[in-house]
Amino acid sequence: MVKRPIHRLGSNGPTPEMDELAEESIITLRCDGETVVRLLASPFDLGDLAYGHVICEGRGNVNSVLVEGFEVNINGYVRNRPVEDLLTAACGACTTGDVEIPRNLVSETVVLDADLNSMMDLMKTNQPWFHATGGMHAASLFDESGDLLLVREDIGRHNAVDKVVGAAIRSDLHPKILGLSGRIGWELVAKAVRVNIEVIVAVGAISSAAENLARASGMTLVGFSASKTPA
Predict the structure, then answer these.
(1) Catalytic residue (choose from 31, 56, 91, 94)
(2) Is there a contact between 135 and 22 (Cβ–Cβ < 8 Å)?
């Protein structure tokens, strides 16, 4: 978070004050001295981000990381992106190269026996950066009883998924249920397919491309799960 001067509008007009804003920085991932990718992301949990981004994008493997400021040096094997582009917080598959379509099928072992509203409420209560700034997405991992295992936040929803998957890998966890604070788009399903996530439960809607990929891969999607009538 960073403090910045703002004017808050009220019934008596604008009032100057300081406010907490969600911080957004250029994060550089490097491997063997070469830039792998640059990401616009929130500058925390960067080790998790590096692990998760490489795995979720299907670009190699990570053995260890060293975080130095806004740079993360990766020990492992990572294929570079088609160009040295900058992925913004809005980007899921922003590149001038071809968009790869995951073709592997996910396992079908999960039986989720939990209240969806309670799961989303539990995730929301564990989003300190969102509560402080109002400007953060969250991704979470649950077990089949709906118990919360991990939560990660970021200015970008794709980064949040990378972070929580990376945190799970580093903790030797193999969860199957992903929770999202926003909508389910194609690129998030693609990330989940690559790491064998079986179920995505989200606060928001499901896009048509996400539905197509999930159906083809054997993944279950649950939209509007913070409402009384999930899709």
Answers:
(1) 91
(2) yes
